[in-house]
């Protein structure tokens, strides 16, 4: 089992999600249609208790539920790593919920740091991610951090009644290079 991820970047601290991150503000992000527009979380109503149960579900799983804190802003979002140990790979997802943090490059910074950690420190051979094609910001994050668009699954989602493709990306440890800052 991987040890807990704790990372520091120029503007961020990335750490295991804990009770201190479980606030009404955090629950508010999950219930904000703008924040979860491209997430399957948009289909649920969240409460402190449902979020607490979700966080507890990571205990002993080998997966990581991470809080992203920005200097001067505090908790701005979360990142999840779902590991597939037998295949030496993992899948990542991210949410930047704090309005003041959106569009500031924090998502790319956090994503890149965790991606590098998984490939270079944990030694996974591959990291994957997926998003709705309409989520241009997330597609850009995946590309900016050195992931390759591997496939598109047509018409995977319904968003406002419109069929939307799933864009799938990956990074292979033996060919991934950290993008220049």
Distance between the termini: 31 Å
Helix content: 10-25%
As residue ranges, the low-confidence spans are none
Compute the gyration radius: what is it? 16 Å
Structural class assignment:
alpha+beta
* Strand percentage: 25-35%
Largest beta-sheet details = 8 strands, mixed
Instruction: State the shape.
Output: globular
Average pLDDT, rounded to a whole number, is: 94
Total number of β-strand segments?
8
- Count of helical segments? 4
Order of helices and strands: EEHHEEEHEHEE
Strands of the largest sheet, in order across it? Answer: 1-2-3-4-5-6-8-7
As an assembly, this protein is single chain
List its traits.
181 residues, single chain, eight-stranded mixed beta sheet, alpha+beta, globular
Account of the 3D structure:
The structure is a single chain. Helices cover 23% and strands 35% of the residues. It has an eight-stranded mixed beta sheet with strand order 1-2-3-4-5-6-8-7, covered by helices on one side. The chain is of the alpha+beta class. A hairpin with a 3-residue loop joins β1 (7-8) and β2. The protein has four helices and eight strands, in the order ββααβββαβαββ. The chain has helices at 24-30, 48-56, 106-121, 136-144; strands at 7-8, 12-16, 64-70, 74-84, 89-96, 126-132, 148-159, 162-172. The chain is globular, with a radius of gyration of 16 Å.
């Amino acid at each position: 089992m991987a040890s807990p991820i704790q990372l520091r970047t120029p503007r961020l601290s990335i750490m295991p999600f804990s009770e201190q991150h479980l606030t009404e503000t955090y629950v508010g992000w999950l219930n904000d249609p703008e924040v979860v527009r491209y997430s399957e979380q948009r289909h649920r109503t969240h409460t402190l208790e449902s979020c607490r149960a979700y966080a507890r579900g990571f205990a002993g799983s080998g997966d990581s539920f991470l809080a992203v804190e920005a200097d001067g802003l505090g908790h701005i979002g979360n990142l999840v790593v779902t590991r597939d140990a037998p295949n030496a790979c993992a899948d990542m997802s991210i949410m930047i919920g704090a309005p003041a943090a959106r569009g500031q490059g924090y998502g790319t910074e956090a994503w890149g740091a965790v991606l590098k950690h998984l490939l270079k420190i944990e030694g996974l051979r591959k990291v994957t991610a997926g998003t709705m094609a309409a989520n241009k910001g997330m597609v850009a994050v995946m590309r900016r951090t050195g992931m390759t668009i591997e496939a598109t699954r047509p018409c995977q989602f319904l968003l406002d009644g419109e069929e939307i493709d799933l864009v799938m990306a990956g990074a292979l440890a033996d060919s991934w290079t950290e993008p220049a800052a």
